[in-house]
Amino acid sequence: MGENLLIPLFAAAGVFFLWAVELFFPFPWVIEELFKFFLVGYVVKKRHGFEGELPLILATGLAFSASEALFYLFNYLPGGSLAPFFVRLAVTTPMHLSTFVLLYLGLRKGMWFGLVALVLSAGLHYWFNSVAVGLIPR
Questions:
Q1: Cα–Cα distances in Å, from 124 out to 16, 83, 98?
Q2: Which residues neighbour 3 within 8 Å (Cβ) at sequence distance 6 or greater?
Q3: What is the DSSP letter of 2?
Q4: Which one, of 30, 32, 61, 49, lies nearest residue 108 by Cα?
Q5: Collapsing DSSP states into helix, strand and coil, what is residue 131?
């Protein structure tokens, strides 16, 4: 039970480590999706058949998304409005939840399906960064 609580916390803390990696390898759709892939893979391997597996994946996705939004909060504070923070949270959370669930479903079927899910989730993340981020006010 306690280990289950650490997984979303690890996802939330991981955002800050990923930011450092992205400074040198500026491809967030690759870095973040690889991180999610290994995190979800851990859950599937260690908790396979666990009754609360999907809720755990969703909680992990929410923790990751909220942490990332908090990280970007510092960009919005000088502007004096928190509206962009809430818009970012509302826009990015469905994408992160979708990719977490996609990776989960793929990895539950096996490694090859997991790798296909990784490519699809990275593609979704790339598309999102290219198109949907324009919805977020600066």
A1: 22, 25, 9
A2: 46
A3: H
A4: 49
A5: coil
97 — alpha (psi -120 to 50), left (phi > 0) or beta? alpha
Which tokens is 125 given? 């993340």
- From first to last of the 138 residues of the chain, give the pLDDT tens digit: 567 789 999 999 999 999 999 999 999 999 999 999 999 999 998 876 667 889 999 999 999 999 998 888 877 777 777 888 888 888 899 999 999 999 999 999 999 999 999 999 999 999 998 887 677 766
The one-character DSSP state at 117 is H
What predicted TM-score, i.e. pTM, was given to this entire model? 0.90
48 neighbors 100 (Cβ within 8 angstroms): no
Q: Determine contact, residues 107/39, Cβ cutoff 8 Å.
A: no
